[in-house]
Write a structure and sequence with these properties.
Elements lengths: L2 H13 L7 H13 L3 H12 L4 H24 L26 H14 L4 H20 L5 H40 L1 H5 L6
Helix pairs in contact: 2-6, 3-4, 4-5, 4-7, 5-6, 5-7
């Protein structure tokens, strides 16, 4: 076993909930692990519908996330790292498919949003997203479905996706943004006319 994997497993065992863990803490961790992910699409929808001045940020964050998730799927395909319960390590507290663990999709979603916010000057919301993302990362390790390296990998992949998108966005970002907004105004013309959402 290589030294990185030794450290990865050791950190996992230190963070993973043991048999004496209280039901309340397991319940809280389960909520964090499963429910908080929905804050990201909700935030993107709210920004798009009611904060037109930040629509470019929302669209770019969405694209970063898509690129990062696609990259993560390729990594999982060529390096299918097992989850802890697949090798009988630690304790597992929530049900999960026995698919590759590296990098974490949950981690990618939060890291993509946090990177997109922080690296474009939205420091307050970026830090808030990062804090929630760290809580989600902890909970999924705590509950036994991810290794610490899965979360670090998610951050690296998200940074890669952000940097990969930069030159393409500089060249085609504005016309793409205009095309998406035009489609949005066409499809949702009625609620826009009613004043329920912003044009």
């Amino acid at each position: 076993m290589n030294p990185i994997e030794v450290v990865n497993r050791s950190l996992f065992l230190q963070l993973n909930a043991g048999t004496g863990t209280g039901a309340g803490l397991i319940g809280l961790a389960s909520f964090i692990a499963d429910a908080l992910i929905y804050l990201i699409p909700l935030a993107l929808v709210v920004i798009w519908l009611w904060q037109p001045q930040r629509r470019q940020l929302a669209l770019r964050a969405c694209l970063v996330c898509c690129i990062a998730l696609a990259t993560g799927q390729l990594l999982a395909m060529f390096w299918p790292h097992p989850r802890p319960f697949m090798i009988g390590l630690g304790h597992t507290w929530i049900a999960h498919a026995a698919d590759p663990s590296f990098p974490s999709d949950h981690g990618i979603v939060f890291a993509s949003m946090a990177c997109s916010l922080l690296l474009t000057g939205e420091l307050l919301w970026g830090m808030a997203t990062a804090v929630v993302g760290i809580a989600v990362a902890w909970s999924r390790i705590f509950l036994g479905v991810h290794f610490p390296l899965d979360m670090l990998g998610a951050l690296v992949v998200s940074l890669f996706a952000f940097l990969l998108l930069l030159p393409a966005w500089a060249r085609w970002g504005n016309p793409f943004m205009q095309a998406v907004e035009k489609l949005y105004r066409y499809l949702l013309a009625w609620p826009i006319a009613k004043g329920w959402i912003r044009a």
